[in-house]
Amino acid sequence: FVISRYGGMGYFQEQLLAAFPTFIETIESRFADFDYHIMVIDGDPYWGLSTCDEQCPTPGEGLCTVKDYPCAYMPSTCDTTMGAGVVFPAGGQASNKMCKIDGGRRYMAKGQTELEKTFACVAQLGMSGNAQVGEALATAMKPAINGGGGCNDGFLREDALLMVTLMSNAYDIEGAPTGSGGSPGTWTAAVRGAKGDDLESVVILNLGGAIVPGCHAKDRICQMLEDFPHALNHELADDKL
After folding, report:
1. DSSP3 helix / strand / coil % (the chain, rounded to 5)
2. What is the reported pTM?
3. End-to-end CA, the chain
4. Which strands sit side by side in the sheet containing 162-167, from one edge to the other?
5. Interval 8-18: pLDDT, tens
6. For residue range 19-30, what is the model confidence (pLDDT) as tens digits?
7. Beta bridge partners of residue 232, listed in sequence order
8. Nearest 5°: CA angle at 95, between 100 and 98?
9. 99 contact partners, CB below 8 Å, separation of at least 6
């Protein structure tokens, strides 16, 4: 799951959390033999909220209005690495706590203790960051971040189906302050490289694209999905997920 932390995402993240139990029930009932890994990454390389960090250790006044902002937590290198699995969401409407993932990993594996509760913790990213979901996806595919000692060590497996869900309420616009580096072509190439040039082993869903023929000129995520044989763009509507 690649989820934006852009302004206004709190409501949509709540819908995702509400839909997750059905998602897991489907996997466990129809694909009982699957050894799944589930990881959540956000759309920027930063941790927390800078205005609150500047007011620590006593936030709560002025520009920082986040209740119980975790000033005592010292973010790790992986917390501030683009494409690394989230374990401690922080900022406005975020969990603002360490999520208990078994084994000290940055992703959940089959058998995870209290899977729904743990997913709810990591996926409540809040709305204090960017919407660089294209770049975040590409970075999460790199060998170094998935190899031994990497932030996501062991997440990607050569023989596994890769299911990607992208979720954002803003276009990933080229050249915008909140936009991703790279292009739809380079993001596709990163996924292709991670899966041994086999896009048949990738299923990708974009929650954020409008349901219209073709793609908006600024919607680079929608344009990326045109490269994948098993992909779907779906509008992120206010009434339902």
Report:
1. 30, 10, 60
2. 0.91
3. 15
4. 41-42, 2-3, 162-167, 202-207, 231-234
5. 888 888 888 88
6. 888 988 888 788
7. 205
8. 30
9. 86, 87, 88, 89, 118, 121, 122
